[in-house]
Amino acid sequence: MVQVTFPDGKQETFDKDEVAVEEIVGSLGDTWRRKAVAARFDGRVVDLHENVSGEGEFCVVTEADEEGLLTLRHTSSHILAHAVQDLFPGTKFAIGPAIEEGFYYDFDVEKPFTPEDLERIERRMNEILKSKPEIHREVWPKEKARKYFSDQNQPYKVELIDEIEDDTVSVYFVGEFTDRENGNRKNQDRQRPPVWTKFYLAQLKTFLPDKINNYGHYQ
């Protein structure tokens, strides 16, 4: 049984061992379902696709909250990586975290991106967003994740997985793009336009022979 307490003090019980966060949010009505980008349960931020169990206080996280903005930035970094993979096959991916000023993703590419390349990337990102890709999360055994990214010739992902102490790895699927978890995600609502209105991409530096750091702002 799962019991949640909402900010107004009301409680709701779900007669199951665990329940999806998005199901709890859905119980609050369509308005909260559309606004939700994540949630907070028992003191921690949880993904909409995550299952929770036990008892705890529950509140919806929206893009107006700091955690919500970070969630959108994390998702944005994956959209950026998705676009780069489409346009530059063979790119190797490192990390793509959200930061205070926006988000970034580290790529290992054959040659630095040009300003024209960045414009192409931004166009492709918006195309991906307009297609409203299905986003879902899976938890894989560490060895399965390691083998997958090794088979995909992604050595930096393998290194990151090797550094994880847990026996499992969260893997996110954005349409046909697969990536190791960098943080919470937002599955875009199919009944409204994307909340990502525009991306500002700028080449900051090349740092190692052929590696480039791309930086993006979410607004």
Write the layout of secondary structure elements.
Layout: E1 2-5, E2 11-14, E3 19-20, H1 21-26, H2 30-35, E4 36-41, E5 44-46, E6 51-52, E7 55-62, H3 66-87, E8 92-93, E9 98-99, E10 102-108, H4 115-130, E11 135-141, H5 142-151, H6 155-163, E12 168-174, E13 177-180, E14 199-206, E15 211-218
Parallel strand pairs: 1-7
Antiparallel strand pairs: 1-2, 3-6, 4-5, 4-7, 8-10, 9-10, 10-15, 11-12, 12-13, 14-15
Helix pairs in contact: 3-4, 5-6
List keywords for this structure.
5-stranded mixed sheet, 34% strand, 32% helix, alpha+beta, 219 residues, 5-stranded antiparallel sheet, Threonyl-tRNA Synthetase, Chain A, domain 2, disordered C terminus
Description of the structure:
With 219 residues, this protein is of the alpha+beta class. The chain has 2 domains: 2-62, Beta-grasp domain (Ubiquitin-like (UB roll)); 67-218, 2-Layer Sandwich (Threonyl-tRNA Synthetase, Chain A, domain 2), CATH 3.30.980.10. Helices cover 32% and strands 34% of the residues. Helix 5 (142-151) runs antiparallel to helix 6 (155-163). It is globular, with a radius of gyration of 18 Å. It starts with a strand and ends with a strand.
